[in-house]
């Protein structure tokens, strides 16, 4: 190998170059899903509000989505074993993404979103089957890098987000989101068909297809009680459940109420929402690409503690956006005349600076925590029972998550800062749990 080749060799690039089979197809088709998803996601709550849904109704829609996910997770493992990873992924990708995109595109009121959320919640089945396709034939020591690549692809896709801002400026939020949902329907459906056409059933999947041949779904699920007991008697699994539950709750709250808070309470124009994901994704991309391989040697505990602490600080920063924006306006903006006069709308510059600080901290925290959270769960699951264990674990996580959509909605109706205070409470609990899990996490290797 030449010196130049050594210099440009990067663990993530090498993984992308050498990965084969289902993981390769999954990675290379992922932009067909992530690009349209990232185009519409920042505006979902604002779109619902524009169609006159209240904060409480938006929270109820989130809870319906979580409830359907919980039911889907209950059956997901059995369905994945019965139909096979490949076929299950195709069927439930279409049901949980293609159909909801059409419903959202033509939605008129609260009930359209309830029905769409009910279909969209079926994505929990395809999450199980797709994850099995991704990891079951992959080398265990490559999992963190594969998940890191997924995050890189996802966040690189956000560079297209300005297209959404331009569209909203041209035609306003409601028609713009209808167009984006139709584009999403086309792109995502193409992705699902390609993965089915060129993917293969995993080796574990073939074994489970044989074992479940002639068995009903109910008979396959008969063993769920023993799996549930196995999870509850495993310290590793309980730790994984806590991690999954906290990030499920905080992710749902942040995803549904950030846009409402900054546009409804802080009065930031809606089109700016498209630019925050770009900044966030650029930071995540750079951080994961440059530093993630170096963090692998540190294991799970220390990077997760650092990331959780930064997550907490970022939400404190967000809560005090209004007050700190006045400080920035008085002490920083006067020294940025070119920015204030020529590039940005002057009156929003202090708030944009403050929210950029929040986004920066949130992105760094995400880079520390999420690849480890995802790979940790997969490393703790018994490979031969991955589908059923994943399904049972997600049922528990989602049942615990369901109430917090409505709770966060009620809190937001009172004060739109309150949901983010709730996030801080959960992140603090998670920090304490990881801090107390030193011995358990030390023996788990990331590579």
Which architecture does the CATH hierarchy give at level 2? Up-down Bundle
> In total, how many domains does the architecture comprise?
1
Per CATH, the superfamily is: MFS general substrate transporter like domains
Oligomer designation? single chain
Derived from helix and strand composition plus strand pairing, the structural class reads: mainly alpha
Q: Main beta sheet: strand number and arrangement?
A: none
Task: Please count the beta strands (DSSP E, at least 2 residues each).
Answer: 0
Measure the end-to-end span.
24 Å
Q: Give the CA-based shape.
A: globular
- Low-pLDDT segments: 339-344
CATH topology: Growth Hormone, Chain: A
SS element count, helices: 25
Query: What percent of residues are in strands?
Result: under 5%
Topology as H/E string? HHHHHHHHHHHHHHHHHHHHHHHHH
Assigned CATH class? Mainly Alpha
Produce a short descriptive summary.
The chain is mainly α and 447 residues long. 80% of the residues lie in helices and 0% in strands.
Question: Any overview of this molecule?
Answer:
The chain is mostly helical and 447 residues long. The chain has helices spanning 3-8, 11-18, 21-29, 31-40, 44-50, 55-83, 85-105, 110-120, 123-135, 143-156, 161-171, 173-198, 203-211, 217-220, 224-232, 235-265, 275-295, 301-319, 321-331, 337-343, 349-380, 386-401, 403-414, 418-435, 438-442. Residues 339-344 have low confidence and may be disordered. Helix 11 (161-171) packs antiparallel against helix 12 and helix 19 packs across helix 21. It has a single domain, classed as Growth Hormone, Chain: A.
